[in-house]
Amino acid sequence: MTETLKGIAASDGVAVAPAYLLVEPDLSFEKKTVSDVDAEVARFEKAIADSKAELENIRSVAVKSLGEDEAKVFDAHLLFLSDPEFTGQIENEIKNSTENSEAALDAVAQNFITIFESMTDNEYMQERAADVRDVSKRIMAHLLGKELPNLAAIDHEVVLVAEDLTPSDTAQLNKDYVKGFVTDLGGRTAHSAIMARSLEIPAVVGTQKITTSVKNGQMLIADGLDGVAIVEPTDEQVAEYTKKGEDFAKQKAEWRKLKNEPSVTADGKRFTIAANIGTPDDLDGVLENGAEAVGLFRTEFLYMNSNDFPTEEDQFEAYKKVLEGMNGKQVIIRTMDIGGDKHLSYWDLPEEMNPFLGIRAIRLSLKNQEIFRTQLRALLRASAYGKLGIMFPMIGTLDELHQAKAVLKEEKDKLVAKGVKVGDDLQVGMMIEVPAAAVLADQFAKEVDFFSIGTNDLIQYTMAADRGNEHVSYLYQPYNPSVLRLIKHTIDSAHEAGIWCGMCGEAAGDSIMFPILLSMGLDEYSMSATSVLRIRSEMKKLSTADLADLADKATKESLTSEENIALVKKIMADK
Asked: Does residue 445 contact residue 496 with C-beta atoms inside 8 Å?
């Protein structure tokens, strides 16, 4: 019987093939008290050594199938296996509780998972819980003498089905045979979803119940374009979705032709389509997809992927690498957005009642100026190697902006006095993600060289709805007229002051939001690198003259998100 499941579109494309259920070994264990603690610690250390050897082998396979950059996730896994914060806690648990390694591993791993999953305002950090599960599962399998599935052995075309796919699972996939995958759990920022996009295989995640809805060998459709999985499709559906997949493949081939083309509308208006990155290793994807700038470099990942504060030299080298790699194209680097619910293991920050509205981003930087100044010095030194824009996050008041600019000027003056070269065309900007800043955008615009709108936070703060809370997720509405009015006011204020305005939130690459933003005159659209060519293609079909009244209709005539969605779909249907 045909069943259609709705999930999250994690990687574009359509796959039609028999289902292959990933069956995990039983890793349940019995909690025991051990008499020889030293011997038990030695047993645990052997499991760690075996896991390292196995991961190094998987990493070498991943380098061949995915490339060096994507394989670096296994460097993070190997770091976990060498991290005393993780392995040391497990050994201490064995010694203090005199329990077996399995019980100690489970207790410590669950604690780490809980910490990561509680970071509801940071989807990237939430997904790191999957890394802990992956590493812990591998260690547990070695402790129990069990073998994990060997996905590299699949030798016929399938759509892989699993509760969730770990990075090490995904790294073993041969895309000649694994045509796509569908999972119960996961999100777009999970490593498995990122790797699926690198492998260019369709993926649908977060269906909740695919593993209980399909059996091995049943025909399965994975529609990674619309986030749909169809179990036992009819012959008509097989034909329909096979054609949909073929059409998408042709469309991708057409998009690739736009890699070196400018981003222009049908009536010749030029805009900038940029990419968001988290580390210098993401630069290959930016260049491969023809992005015209880096619209957001999230520097917090330099802190999160380290066991201590990154030094000035470490940061300088990272920023310099990106600036040189972009070969004169602008790179917007955001100062660290740490704090609140984004914790660092080596920074003891106070617990807060409401971390979403707490000490984070620029607030934390201004209260910890030694750390802030280290980052600013690294940025200023790197500015000599390219076209840099320094961006301050979560600015809410003019006083915060004045303070941040004053610290930057002090560090710049010190460097110049020492004869250190600083870039001549350095720009200083701010994110508009606090509604108070959006409302007062006309005043902020007099103080900076550019704005970049961070829609992820702006929407949740405007709607007073935590985007990570499923009970109020219906209120996370990018197309709500109230949100759009704030965005339009911000863009208008920037242009009236003679500065440019970009957007680095997820909405910049959204097919419904894009025409609205274009009608508002947004200058720069920064998004995931894999969305750049799609949006460039959409831009070429649209004329700013045809969209002239869309912004007013979306902010003044429409009363709901649904009305704005319908409005855009009607316009796009005619293109």
From this structure: yes
Active-site residue (options: 142, 191, 343, 489): 191
Assign residue 367 a region: left if phi > 0, alpha if psi is -120 to 50, beta otherwise? Answer: alpha
Active site residue 504: yes
Residue 518: name the closest of 550, 561, 566 by CA: 550
For residues 216 and 212, give the distance between their C-alpha atoms in angstroms, rounded to a whole number.
11
CATH of residue 104: 1.10.274.10
Cβ atoms of 316 and 381 within 8 Å: the answer is yes
Given 229, 258, 287, which residue is the final one in a domain? 229
In angstroms, what CA-CA distances link 444 with 165, 220, 389, 449?
45, 53, 17, 10
**Domain residue limits at 94:** 37-144
| Domain-located, residue 380 | yes
Q: Give yes or no: 501 in active site.
A: no
Amino acid symbol at 17: A
Report pLDDT digits (tens) over 479-529.
Answer: 999 999 999 999 999 999 999 999 997 789 888 999 999 999 999 999 888
Task: Report which of residues 59 and 145 the model is more confident about.
Answer: 145
What is the spatial distance between Cα 564 and Cα 569, in angstroms, rounded to a whole number? 9
> 409 and 290 share a domain?
yes
Which has the higher per-residue pLDDT, 375 or 198? 375
Residue in 77, 142, 343, 504 annotated catalytic: 504
Distance CA 311, CA 374 (A): 8
> Exposure pattern of 328-349 as b/e (b: 16+ CB <10 Å)?
ebbbbbbbbbbbbbbbbeeeeb
- Please check whether residues 20 and 89 belong to one and the same domain: no
Return d(Cα 480, Cα 120) in angstroms, integer: 22
Going from the C-alpha of 417 to that of each of 69, 373, 405, the distances in angstroms are 39, 16, 18
Q: Is 339 left (phi over 0), alpha (psi -120 to 50) or beta?
A: left
Residue 38: how many CB atoms within 10 A of its CB? 10
Is residue 473 a contact partner of residue 524, using CB atoms and an 8 Å limit?
A: no
Closest CA to 490 of 520, 512, 510: 520
